Amino acid sequence: MKKVLVTGAAGQTGQCMKSLVDDYGDVSFVFFDSTSLDISDKLKLDEVFGLERPDYCVNLAAYTAVDKAEDDKELAFKVNAEAVLYLAEVCNKYNCVLMHISTDFVFDGEKRVPYVVSDIPNPINVYGASKLQGELYIKANMERYYIVRTSWVYSDYGHNFKKTMLRLAETRNEISVVNDQIGCPTDAMDLCHFLLSLIQGSKAYGIYHFSGGIVCSWYDFAISIFKENNISIKVNPISTEEYPTRARRPKYSVLG
Ligand SMILES: NC(=O)C1=CN([C@@H]2O[C@H](COP(=O)(O)OP(=O)(O)OC[C@H]3O[C@@H](n4cnc5c(N)ncnc54)[C@H](OP(=O)(O)O)[C@@H]3O)[C@@H](O)[C@H]2O)C=CC1
Ligand SMILES: Cc1cn([C@H]2C[C@H](O)[C@@H](COP(=O)(O)OP(=O)(O)O[C@H]3O[C@@H](C)C(=O)[C@@H](O)[C@H]3O)O2)c(=O)[nH]c1=O
To answer: For a tag site, which of 4, 115, 136, 227 has the least CB within 10 Å?
Structure first.
């Protein structure tokens, strides 16, 4: 039976992964949240991996606050880059495959056709730059790894755009959402199934792109969220310029 150690288990994807445990009887899971395993604590990583001896580490721990990262660069890089280097080192030491999740935000958004794994990343915000550095540390130091880039992850857990929209709709009867940033919303459950299929399969190590199949703007996504939840609310399509944010975001980040 393959043993899988999951980090960042209290986040939205971690909680989805936990809910799937019974569907994967041939996998044994151990879950660690930020309290039980801070991935930037090198000594603790060694202690936990030495005790658990996992076959796979699924790293769902990350600094994901895109706007906040602009003013919190040090912490974003500590979690998304330096700690990922520590994970790579501890995985090498204990002969563990590292499965790391990365993001469409490693790209600058200047393309108008889907980004493929051979495209050269060029992040335009701190979060994207920190995630890219994490990828680079893995590539430079490991042979047995999967880096899975995904985009616009949503679920019923944690913080995500879907939950933000539903929360805002409780107190507003009108909402404005950008319609000039294009990407693919990804159900966190589908992402977890994909990650587990890699563990169960025998695909080559390396970088993969995985996202939902619908290409849309955040405005389109908001409309479909409200429709699915039978919420009647006026949604105004606006431009990025009309919704200023601390971090720049790619205009187009469809993963192919
Ligand atoms: N959300 C999205 O739209 C997308 C996410 N991704 C990537 O997918 C992965 C999972 O994201 P998602 O589930 O949405 O993220 P969440 O923000 O929901 O969860 C991340 C978790 O990581 C934990 N964490 C933060 N710092 C540390 C640390 N030093 N040690 C251990 N745990 C830590 C957080 O705990 P605490 O709250 O206690 O700090 C939190 O529970 C991430 O790598 C992210 O970059 C990729 C594309 C899109
Ligand atoms: C709340 C809100 C956001 N927006 C815009 C801001 C932004 O351009 C876009 C998405 O907003 P959010 O801040 O919710 O999403 P954001 O945090 O940018 O989402 C990103 O998170 C990281 C972790 C990733 O890796 C990416 O793939 C992506 O999912 O919608 C509106 O136009 N109106 C609104 O009311």
So the answer is: 227
